[in-house]
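Possible regression after last week's pipeline update?

I re-ran a chain I had predicted before the update to compare outputs. Posting the input and the new output here so someone can diff against the archived version. Not blocking, just want to make sure nothing changed silently.
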Amino acid sequence: MVSAPSRAASIRDLEADFAWLDRLIEARFQRHFHPDTPRRALPPPPVMGEPPSAYARHLRAAAADPLRRTALVLVLAHALRPRLLDALLIRNTAIDRRFTEFGGSRDRAEAEFQPTGETLAFLVGGDDLEARLAVMDLLAPDADLVRADVLHAAASDDPLRGVLRPGRALLARIGLADEAAAALGAGFPAQRIETRQRWEDLVLHPSTRAEVAEIAAWIAHGPTLMEDWGMGRTLRPGHRSLFYGPPGTGKTMTAALLGEMTDRPVYRIDLSMTVSKYIGETEKNLARVIDAAEARGWILFFDEADALFGKRGETKDAHDRHANQEVAFLLQRIESFDGIAILASNYRDNIDEAFARRFESMVYFPAPRPEERLELWRRALPARAVLASDVDLHALARDHALTGGSIVNAVRYAALASLTDGGRPIGQAHLNAAIRREQAKEGRGG
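New output (post-update):
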């Protein structure tokens, strides 16, 4: 669900942009109807407020230049504040019809103005031919904002005449709707991951926590570094990180919490749907995910990344050569990804060295030490659980090298066994049996 503060911040910034659009329309009318008067500068777009909103982040990612920003505000005004466009319904009394140069749908004489590419061209450039050509490029079927479903231009032989509407998931991307309502389709090869845990619930080695904090710092301050400080000329866009370590050490939970603390959705790539045995299909599937993530400001989480980014075997036939070419293309695509990409693997050495060099950070998630295991036991036990007098959590943490995931599973089993016994306190026997189950699952005796 979209949080109330996030929604309020996006509404605040969107109201400022709607007021700017109103002034822009007025300035364009002044130039159009009074060409002999001294021209005033067109009003600049407003600076976004603090704290940064999902809408502001989306502008940075997908609509940084004036043309794109005007397009985005125009379609959002059409959807959310249509009265702003009423002024464009004015009729040319000399020929008793609407002004062709203002654009708008020509299929109906509706009371509500429906903007088209012509409308956008008028707002950004008046009758300037270069502005019209730029709008045509922006609205082409293969243009990035159209492919990413940020803008939708109704089918037309002329991209300037199609009615402009926001893409299906645009409101979700800017924090004004639930992403679950975006209708990405059942075949979309990524699923959102969320957690009800909080940052303070995460038990990590101090060095691991410090490295994760560096990623959070990049999410918060990366745009300032790249744009305001001018480092975009020397730094690659985005941030790529490898999370590696044994299963159950908190890699997925950390990715989800990074999204929670920075107000960004986290999407896990389903590699079983993304990696295809058919040459070329993997590239298309992953490109869909990356395009959507760039437009929406998602964090991408590639679980079990070895399947796609692992070391390649010997090239034996044409299929192997095509597969290697395909992977090379995908590596380049993720390298240029203007967002946060996290890849998870159980072993660092499983990742192809050619790709490992492209990571901005490599974060090791070691098996927890005894003091961390003790904290995991304490946090995993339900608040309503009653422990028998023979339970010694210090001894459990010292003697049994379990990961956080295994400890949670053991507590679950022990709590259910306690309830089955009529709600008796959780005893050492319950916990010992639960630990043996976890060790057996890992192929260890006990």
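Follow-up from reviewer: compared with the archived run. DSSP finds 18 helices and ten strands in the chain. Marking as no regression found.
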